[in-house]
C-alpha cells in the first residue's frame, strides 16, 4: 500500500495480485476505486520495456527493440551497446491499441521520443524529435483520443492530434514548430 507523491491516489495490491488505484476526491474525503489492473508496463535502467501480468506469468514479456542479436553479431559488438538508452518517461493508452502504436517513450540523454506497439510487442515505426533548444525529450503523455503531448516547462503542449499510426496532424490549425515526425 502506497500513496503517490503530491496526489490523492493510493495504490494497493490484493491477495489475487491485482493492482488497485484508489482516489480520494469525494466531497466528504472518502475514496473510490479509480482503476483496477492486473497488467503492469515497466521500464528500468536495464534499457528494456516490459509487460508484466500479475495473474499469469506466462503472459509477461519484454517488448522487442528489433533484431539486436543479429545486428550485434554482424557488427561485432555487444547487444547491450545496441539497446536504446534507459527509459526516463513513458505513457500508454489502451484505446484502439491494434490501430496504432500506443506507447511513447523518452530515453535518457536523447532528443527523440519513440513509439511502441503493445499489440505487436515491439518498437514502433515513428520517432518524434525535438527541434527546440533542449538536450533531451521528455516527459510525454498519450491521451485516449491519441493526442500526443510533450511537457514544456509547466504546461502540456499539443504536438500531434493524430492516430499514432499516421503521425500526421488532425484538428489543429498549426502544430507547434518545436516537434516534428522523423519516421
Automatic annotation (TrEMBL):
Keyword match Zinc: no
Xref: Pfam families: Beta-prop_WDR36-Utp21_2nd (PF25168)
GO-annotated biological processes: rRNA processing
Keywords (A to Z) from UniProt: WD repeat
Chain positions of WD repeats: 1-22
Record carries keyword Transferase: no
Any one GO CC term of the record: small-subunit processome
Record's protein name: WD repeat-containing protein 36
Amino acid at each position: 500500500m502506497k500513496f503517490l507523491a503530491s496526489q490523492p491516489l493510493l495504490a494497493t495490491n490484493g491477495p489475487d495480485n491485482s493492482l488497485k488505484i484508489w482516489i480520494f476526491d469525494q466531497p466528504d474525503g472518502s475514496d473510490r476505486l479509480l482503476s483496477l489492473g492486473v497488467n503492469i508496463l515497466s521500464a528500468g535502467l536495464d534499457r528494456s520495456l516490459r509487460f508484466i501480468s500479475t495473474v499469469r506469468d506466462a503472459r509477461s514479456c519484454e517488448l522487442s527493440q528489433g533484431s539486436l542479436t543479429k545486428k550485434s553479431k554482424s557488427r561485432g559488438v555487444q547487444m547491450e551497446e545496441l539497446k536504446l538508452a534507459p527509459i526516463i518517461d513513458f505513457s500508454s493508452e489502451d484505446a484502439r491499441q491494434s490501430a496504432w502504436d500506443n506507447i511513447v517513450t523518452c530515453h535518457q540523454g536523447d532528443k527523440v521520443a519513440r513509439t511502441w506497439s503493445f499489440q505487436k510487442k515491439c518498437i514502433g515505426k515513428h520517432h518524434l524529435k525535438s527541434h527546440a533548444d533542449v538536450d533531451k525529450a521528455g516527459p510525454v503523455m498519450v491521451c485516449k483520443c491519441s493526442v500526443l503531448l510533450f511537457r514544456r516547462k509547466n504546461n502540456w503542449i499539443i504536438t500531434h492530434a493524430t492516430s499514432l499510426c499516421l503521425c500526421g496532424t488532425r484538428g489543429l490549425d498549426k502544430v507547434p514548430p518545436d516537434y516534428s515526425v522523423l519516421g
